[in-house]
């Protein structure tokens, strides 16, 4: 069974705005899933419904088999949430903040566990400091420590690196990798494509309340390793000789452009032979272009296709 199962979830806010339009998604135990989407896509809404902060208008969500509405406590105890905003008491000491979070879940006192969590986040030396004495990066780590204090099996990080500097972003990535090693399932939302690329096992793209794609990062990256050669012709070609079709050459733009997709990782791309065969077929080249797919292209392509359809 998936660790988190989201089935056909819709969420309308008061006023009628539909922020989720039938989202379905399975999250597997132990994976890092990055949810990528522009502002207002519905990422925070999705996380909030999973964590039981808001209720879905329809559809079901289970965490570890517990329904987030009918068995809220069972589901919530398995979930840790690191919010986007820093919402800490400035005068409170780090250790007390984290202890308090654990207490909220009705868990027995366990200072050995809190020490492990704080050490993992390089906060142990700061345990007796007041929150106001910490840097912005340390405060973000405290948010993570709070979310881990009750030993959740699933951790949600809402935009963990929005507005942080490059160094802290890398630190966050290391922290997330460490948590995964410790067996925590991690879902993070991000605007940054390179963040999804750097740490996720799977990448989901969400826009306008719909999940447009969920795919293994490695599969996406294979697609990204492909390059396109676009060959502009002097005169449009109406048809291609069978040999060229067999090589995977396609006609586009009313015959003005021939397109060939090849794998950049391969030793032999076949381009030289292809060009020879094209001119043997009597076609005259006018211009050549190559273009590399990026995750950004795939993302922008998906989002604009959805806009066209609307
Ligand atoms: N409490 C609310 N009441 C009404 N509309 C809301 C509420 N919360 C969010 N929305 C709307 O729902 C949509 C999705 O918002 P959400 O915060 O889930 O997006 P997001 O993908 O997390 O965006 P961002 O990347 O900017 O954080 C937005 O259009 C937002 O204005």
TrEMBL record:
This is ABC transporter ATP-binding protein. Pfam families: ABC_tran. Residues 4-233 form the ABC transporter domain. The lineage of its organism: Bacteria, Pseudomonadati, Pseudomonadota, Alphaproteobacteria, Rhodobacterales. SMART domains: AAA (SM00382). It comes from Marivita cryptomonadis. InterPro entries: AAA+_ATPase (IPR003593), ABC_transporter-like_ATP-bd (IPR003439), ABC_transporter-like_CS (IPR017871), ABC_transporter_ATP-binding (IPR050763), P-loop_NTPase (IPR027417). Transmembrane segments: none annotated. One of its GO terms (molecular function) is ATP binding.
């Amino acid at each position: 069974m998936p660790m988190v199962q989201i089935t056909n979830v819709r969420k309308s806010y008061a006023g009628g705005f539909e922020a989720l339009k039938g989202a379905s998604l399975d999250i597997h135990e132990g994976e890092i899933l990055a949810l990528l989407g522009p502002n207002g896509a519905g990422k925070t809404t999705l996380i909030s419904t999973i964590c039981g902060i808001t209720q879905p208008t329809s559809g079901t969500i289970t965490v570890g088999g517990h329904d987030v509405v009918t068995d809220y406590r069972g589901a919530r105890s398995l979930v840790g949430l690191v919010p986007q905003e820093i919402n800490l008491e400035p005068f409170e000491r780090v250790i007390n903040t984290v202890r308090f979070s654990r207490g909220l879940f009705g868990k027995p006192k366990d200072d050995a566990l809190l020490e492990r969590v704080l050490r993992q986040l390089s906060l142990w030396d700061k345990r007796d400091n007041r929150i106001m004495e910490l840097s912005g990066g340390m405060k973000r780590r405290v948010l993570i420590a709070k979310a881990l204090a009750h030993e959740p099996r699933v951790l949600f990080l809402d935009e963990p690196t929005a507005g942080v500097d490059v160094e802290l972003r890398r630190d966050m990535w290391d922290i997330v990798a460490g948590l995964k090693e410790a067996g925590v399932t991690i879902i993070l939302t991000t605007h940054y494509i390179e963040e999804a690329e750097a740490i996720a096992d799977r990448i989901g793209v969400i826009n306008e309340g719909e999940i447009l794609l969920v795919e293994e990062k490695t599969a996406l990256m294979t697609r990204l390793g492909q390059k396109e050669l676009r060959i502009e012709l002097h005169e449009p070609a109406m048809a291609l000789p069978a040999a060229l079709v067999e090589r995977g050459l396609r006609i586009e733009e009313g015959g003005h452009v021939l397109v060939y997709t090849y794998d950049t990782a391969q030793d032999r791309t076949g381009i030289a032979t292809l060009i020879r065969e094209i001119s043997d077929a009597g076609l005259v080249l006018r211009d050549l272009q190559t273009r590399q797919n990026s995750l950004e292209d795939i993302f922008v392509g998906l989002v604009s296709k959805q806009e066209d359809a609307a």
